[in-house]
From TrEMBL, chain A:
The keyword Metal-binding applies. Transmembrane segments: none annotated. Its cofactor is [4Fe-4S] cluster; FMN. Belongs to the complex I 51 kDa subunit family. GO terms for biological process: cellular respiration. Keywords: 4Fe-4S, Flavoprotein, FMN, Iron, Iron-sulfur, Metal-binding, NAD, Oxidoreductase, Quinone, Translocase. This is NADH-quinone oxidoreductase subunit F. The lineage of its organism: Bacteria, Pseudomonadati, Bacteroidota, Sphingobacteriia, Sphingobacteriales. It comes from Pedobacter lusitanus. InterPro entries: ComplexI_51kDa_subunit, NADH-UbQ_OxRdtase_51kDa_CS, NADH-UbQ_OxRdtase_suF, Nuo51_FMN-bd, Nuo51_FMN-bd_sf, Nuop51_4Fe4S-bd, Nuop51_4Fe4S-bd_sf. It is an enzyme of class 7 (translocase).
Automatic annotation (TrEMBL), chain B:
The lineage of its organism: Bacteria, Pseudomonadati, Bacteroidota, Sphingobacteriia, Sphingobacteriales. It comes from Pedobacter lusitanus. The keyword Ribosomal protein does not apply. GO terms for molecular function: 2 iron, 2 sulfur cluster binding; 4 iron, 4 sulfur cluster binding; metal ion binding; oxidoreductase activity. Residues 3-92 form the 2Fe-2S ferredoxin-type domain. Pfam families: Fer2_4 (PF13510), Fer4_Nqo3 (PF22117), NADH-G_4Fe-4S_3 (PF10588). GO terms for cellular component: membrane. Belongs to the complex I 75 kDa subunit family. It is found in: Membrane. Keywords: 2Fe-2S, 4Fe-4S, Iron, Iron-sulfur, Membrane, Metal-binding, NAD, Translocase. This is NADH dehydrogenase. Gene3D superfamilies: 3.10.20.740, 3.30.70.20. InterPro entries: 2Fe-2S_ferredoxin-like_sf (IPR036010), 2Fe-2S_ferredoxin-type (IPR001041), NADH_UbQ_OxRdtase_ferredoxin (IPR054351), NADH_UbQ_OxRdtase_Gsu_4Fe4S-bd (IPR019574), Prok_molybdopt-oxidoreductase (IPR050123).
Length: 455, 334
């Protein structure tokens, strides 16, 4: 069994309450940090741990914290990005629902490290149950003296608020989130200045993902050195993966980074293989914004070595043969799934969610969606395929925030790896609509039994 | 006085104050290397970064950190560093990306220049001419809107809007009552007034001047004439509300339009009030200064002020120069 840090007690009845959470060792990190460590020492432990941001970008958390400007007399803020809304990603919601105190404990320790006296958890507006759960948990923590004035007699004060978001995907982008938190339209800000210099209300601010903040708790409990021993290379620690698609057992799994992708898909401990005995055709490894990979490149690197669930291994070979770990939204497609339809579906999402502030994203995402709609519905032209590649190139890298890239990468990668299928949609529109995608053999015929035998 | 920083743009080095953006550094050099800007407006705080037409390549970050920037950057919002090297028109990557931006901007902006009131003064028209394709690759239905009267003097036609936000910033920053902004998101975004409230404060007319395309037009001038048939003249009056420095646009003896004075980048020098703009259309209202300086490349200068540049053969031959002296003098600039 792999080591669990965040979901160790997930099945304990009542773990969402303060009492049970404390019985299982909860709030030890708060006591340790506030009573025995200085804020700088907490930052140092996080740096030592090698923890990388779990929201998608993978930037080292400790380093991000150390960039925070500390001018005299100016407030500092910690904002938790709980605006999880990328298709295929649902691990933060799971964590907040079942173990809300893990996030709150992480918020207290992280706020202490950063010198923040007021912190916010920005939750997507649609997640009303999670908002209520967090509010109840915050009330419990405050009543027990973990929040408010003079926490545990340490002299440190912290107020923690839950702020419902506007229900827009773009509000998950850290600067758009800050705009939204300030009560404005959720448009991304132009960087620089970065939030570490001028963030919420113009003050130095750190924005971290739910999972990143929750991961601070075991780092403080066990020490950064211990945390660094878990995982592989620069991908240290554990990662929550939200697995969905045509899997036998979709769900949220905590894995040690470095786990072979093949084992994650086919072993009984995790996803249990592809549903209904079908073959794997493709995967999206890190949420809908990362490039799609065909089955062979999902399981193996271009040089034939096994692909691992880590930041480095998944991006091995760049976008030609690799992808990204992203937020850990792992979606598997079996041999019956239409790549064109799936790409159109993703594109539809990004078109809908573009804020419209910058021209390439505002106009380009809609253009791609319309061309993909045409291809999927049997009216496509062969030139549409190159047009899509060109439009995606014109968007990529030319926008204010990464939403443009997120819209462009799935389209470009789907055509790169599954061009035959796009062409088939043009050549045989009727057959394509009937579910015959005309592909030679994209799927990888690995049965669960074979994997077991190898292991 | 802070120490100046050195930046090189397309091989030309200039020293500028710290905190200057690449675009403004390029403007200090002038000429073709100045990136185009559809949304940036130096007089409006926070503007820029949205249209992406001014993107450039930073091939060297600074003396301290010479690494190039990984992506193209918006020159209007990126400040220079000492030793920075920038490529604009010398980078094929930039030209390619800019042509992509122009193509995107023209998706929902009709090329109806012959019937647009902004023809001859439109930045997008120039940009389309310089970077656009001969034929659009976009084959889907364009979004269309009904024209909206925002007040009795200003007409908004969203068909032509490219969402540069300049008018929103203008309304926010120089008028005393903000009544318009952006509605919806993505390619459904639109500039609108709240429940079509009239924009009727003293400085509202400036949204017409800042609009880079023909989306916001002056109803007192709209379609009365083509701009290249008019004759711009600088004039002023003693105005209690604004500086009173304007450009009068004459057709014959009639003042057809009054606008703020604009610099060579099409930005107004000083915002003017609605009284000067809409109500003072008699020559007697104004003290005339002199004809407005118009760029030789502008269509407005056609048949008016363009200096005849002697052909190379005339430049080199003194006899021909003498023979053409009268003709050349006729076209001399004021």
């Amino acid at each position: 069994m792999a080591r669990k840090l965040l979901l160790e007690h997930i099945n304990v009845p009542g773990i969402n309450t303060l009492d049970v959470y404390r019985q299982k060792g909860g709030y030890r990190a708060v006591e340790k940090a506030l009573k025995t460590l200085t804020p700088d020492e907490v930052v140092e432990e996080v740096k030592k741990s090698g923890l990388r941001g779990r929201g998608g970008a993978g930037f080292p958390t400790g380093m991000k914290w150390s960039f925070l400007a500390k001018p005299e007399g100016v407030a500092r803020y910690l904002v938790c990005n709980a605006d999880e809304s990328e298709p295929g990603t649902f691990k933060d919601r799971y964590l907040m629902t079942h173990i809300p105190h893990a996030l709150i404990e992480g918020m207290i320790v992280s706020s202490y490290a950063l010198g923040a006296k007021t912190s916010y958890i920005y939750v997507r507006g649609e997640m009303m149950p999670q908002i209520r759960i967090l509010e109840r948990a915050i009330a419990e923590a405050k009543a027990a003296g973990f929040l408010g004035k003079n926490i545990l007699g340490s002299g440190y004060d912290l107020e923690l608020y839950v702020q419902p978001g506007g229900g827009a995907y773009i509000c998950g982008e850290e600067t758009a989130l800050l705009e939204s938190l300030e009560g404005k339209r959720g448009n991304p800000r132009i960087k620089p200045p970065f939030p570490a210099i001028a963030g919420l209300y113009g003050c130095p601010t750190v924005v971290n993902n739910v999972e990143s903040i929750a991961a601070v708790v075991p780092i403080i409990n066990d020490g950064g050195d211990e945390y660094m021993k878990i995982g592989i290379g620069r991908s240290t620690g554990t990662k929550l993966i939200s697995a969905s698609g045509n899997l036998v057992r979709p769900g949220v799994y905590e894995i040690e980074l470095g786990l072979p992708v093949e084992e994650f898909i086919y072993s009984d401990e995790y996803c249990g293989g592809i549903a209904n005995g079908k073959r794997l055709k493709a995967t999206v490894a890190g949420g809908s914004s990362v490039p799609v990979l065909p089955a062979n490149l999902t399981l193996k690197l271009a040089n034939g070595e096994p692909r691992l669930m880590s930041y480095e291994s998944l991006s091995e070979g760049g976008f030609a043969t690799g992808t990204m770990l992203g937020s850990g939204g792992f979606i598997a497609f079996d041999e019956d799934q239409c790549i064109v339809r799936n790409t159109w579906n993703f594109s539809r999402f990004y078109h809908h969610e573009s804020c419209g502030q910058c021209s390439p994203c505002r106009e380009g995402t809609g253009w791609m969606e319309k061309v993909l709609h045409r291809l999927e519905h049997g009216h496509g032209k062969m030139s549409d395929i190159d047009l899509l590649v060109d439009v995606s190139k014109k968007i990529e890298g030319n926008t204010i925030c990464p939403l443009g890239d997120a819209a462009a990468w799935p389209v470009a990668s789907a055509i790169r790896h599954f061009r035959d299928e796009f062409e088939w949609h043009v050549k045989e529109p009727v057959k394509s609509l009937q579910g015959n995608y005309g592909i030679a053999d994209y799927a990888v015929p690995i049965a669960k039994a074979e994997v077991k035998q190898e292991n | 006085m802070s120490e100046k920083v050195k930046v090189t743009i397309d091989g030309i080095t200039v020293e500028v104050e710290p905190g200057t953006t690449i675009l403004n550094a390029a403007r200090q050099i002038g000429g073709d290397i100045v990136p185009p800007a559809m949304c940036y407006y130096s007089k409006l705080e926070g503007s820029g970064g949205k249209c992406r037409t001014c993107i450039v390549k930073v091939s060297k970050g600074s003396e301290k950190d010479p690494r190039p920037m990984p992506k193209l950057v918006a020159s209007c919002r990126t400040t220079v560093m000492d030793g920075m090297e920038v490529q604009n028109i010398t980078s094929p990557e930039v030209i390619e990306a800019r042509s992509g931006v122009v193509e995107m901007l023209l998706i929902n902006h009709p090329l109806d220049c012959p019937v647009c009131d902004q023809a001859g003064e439109c930045d997008l028209q120039n940009l389309g001419y310089e970077h656009g394709l001969q034929k659009t690759r976009y084959e889907f239905e364009r979004r269309t809107f009904e024209r909206i009267d925002i007040g009795d003097k200003i007409q908004l036609h969203m068909n032509r809007c490219i969402l540069c936000y300049r008018c929103v910033f203008t309304a926010d920053q120089i008028t005393n009552k903000r009544v318009h902004g952006i509605l919806n998101r993505g390619d459904h975004s639109e500039i609108s007034t709240y429940i079509q409230t009239a924009v009727d404060n003293d400085f509202s007319g400036n949204v017409i001047d800042v609009c880079p395309v023909g989306a916001l037009t002056d109803k007192t001038f709209r379609f009365k004439n083509r701009v290249w048939f008019t004759k711009p003249v600088d004039a002023h009056r003693d105005c209690p509300t604004c500086s009173g420095k304007v450009t009068l646009w004459y057709k014959g003896e009639n003042v057809l339009r009054v606008t703020a004075r604009k610099d060579i980048y099409g930005e107004v020098e000083e915002f003017i009030c609605n009284t000067c703009r809409f109500d003072k259309k008699m020559t007697a209202d104004w003290t005339i200064e002199h004809p407005t300086a118009i760029s030789d490349t502008s269509v407005i200068s056609a048949n008016h002020y363009e200096t005849m540049i002697p052909l190379p053969v005339i430049q080199e031959d003194l006899r021909l120069q003498e023979a053409n002296k009268v003709e050349l003098e006729k076209t001399a600039k004021f």
